[in-house]
Amino acid sequence: MQFDEGADLDVSQVSDLRGVGGRVALGGGGLGIVGLIVYFLFQQFTGVQLPSGGLPQIGQGQQVESGQLAEKCKTGADANKDEDCRVVAIINSIQGFWKDQFARSGKTYQVTTTNFFRGSVNTRCGNATSAVGPFYCPADSQVYIDLDFFQELRTKFGATGGPFVEAYVLAHEYGHHIQNLLGTSDRVRTRSGPTSDSVRLELQADCYAGAWGNAATKTPTASGRPLITNITQEDVNAALDAASRIGDDFIQKELGGGRIDTTQFTHGSSAQRQKWFTTGLQTGDPARCDTFGTNNLG
Asked: In this structure, are residues 85 and 78 in contact, taking their beta carbons and an 8 Å threshold?
């Protein structure tokens, strides 16, 4: 995965909060791999906020180190050599894609912010530590990520990793933003089980991520030209590998005790996550991502 070295980056889509706070665990040791799923589902779908555990209060929209980000992340050339800038470029491309998709439907896409944090963060969905992984908060319509998660994908989950894996993760979270804008998130009634609304929501976000991937090398951004110049089959394979390692069955078996209980599924199986990401990637059509309108989730 490579970026157009002459294309401009738009750092206004990112808020860098990494200069605030430290690593504070919830519940005396963090949420754990399975707990991260339950924690945010509980808050997002019930509206109840769990105890803060003394996490630092970061004001909404406060930017701590974004000036430094703007200084070093100017063009695609910076994205090709710096991880922070690469993530900025990916976010620019994803939002450029959805801006175009909404415009084609006569709608206006609402650009949102991705917040980089380290250790812990306060959001309108509640307080969280890095243990919850990347997440989208529908209450403030923003994405949150500790970039160390990409290293954890490799070390704890055993994923291959790489730039397109990072892109898949971010595009999935922006898929939740699309669901929030379209009102799809409001359709969630059943919160666990192999065909639950929660699983359908997550698989649709995977499909939306794939749809962006299909158009990534053709999507113009602020500079009027695509930021991403090529995505290889190796990149795609790495993303599929990551999808297989964040399926409910893989997490339960490999990281949660060894027993697979489909009644507790909230995100879908590894095979389902791969299937729906591939559906989006092959078709490039978000309309083909209607996981709520099918009885065959894979």
From this structure: yes
